[in-house]
Amino acid sequence: MPIESQTMSAAPPLPPAAPAAPAGPAAVVPAGSAGARIIAVTSGKGGVGKTFVSANLAAALARTGQRVLVLDADLGLANLDVMLNLHPKTTLHDVFTGKARLEDAVMTTPGGFDALLAGSGMAEYSRLTPEVRSQFLSVIEALTPRYDLLLLDTGAGISDLVLFSVSLACEVLIVATPEPTSLTDAYAAIKVLAMQQKRQHVRMVINQATRPGDGRAITGQLQQVLDRFISTESGHPMRLIHMGDIPSDPSVRDAVMRRHLLLLQIPGCPAALAIAQLANKIETTLLVPAA
What we know:
The protein is an alpha/beta fold. It contains twelve helices and eight strands. It has one domain (about 35-285): P-loop containing nucleotide triphosphate hydrolases (Rossmann fold, 3-Layer(aba) Sandwich), CATH 3.40.50. About 40% of the residues lie in helices and about 15% in strands. It has an eight-stranded mixed sheet, with helices on both faces. A hairpin with a 5-residue loop joins strand 3 and strand 4.
């Protein structure tokens, strides 16, 4: 058993380190310098509620007056349209291929934020080719002056495409659940961000928390492992910033099955209130409050 896994008794052995990917340095686009702050919402493992968090967080921030766009950066297996019950006639794929203008692909959602949706099942966009890299950068550069915040809803894992999407963000929000497999994969993703992108810190949200305080304890446990095994370029350990917990709540499944935003369907349920608290924390610590 690798030594890292011995510190976290609940987690299985960690996978071997991924090969280097051409992700580029952090914040390839000068995030926030000419408009929007860029936050990547990512995860080590799929199925942890990353897109659910992205969409509802965007709705909560839009309520405060922030101009928000969510970009579905999972270019090969996009599902933000399913989450929002949208049926786009034009997607990011059409923009990349020159069939449509960027303005035609941006949709206004019921949550009061804009969304740029990607197609699903397109193998040619599941890899980071020079063409995809260039096209993606051009889209980001065109969008940043128009919004206060861009949320990049990335794919899961540490593929070159995911890492490139994350590299464009000034802040990274990792979504994990208390399950050992989720935590192990979150650790692997954090390790890559520290070593390849020279990140000094990342932010954590623990979804499906069963008890109050669970998420902070889990973040602290991960921090202990990082303190032992991972150092940043400055020589200091990678710092995890706990942003909040989203409790396990049956209302979430109901909203997802109905393809509705939780904040619109059941705004007073525990999970919705937790997302509103997360949005407030992001606005007060990372954004300029809306006028």
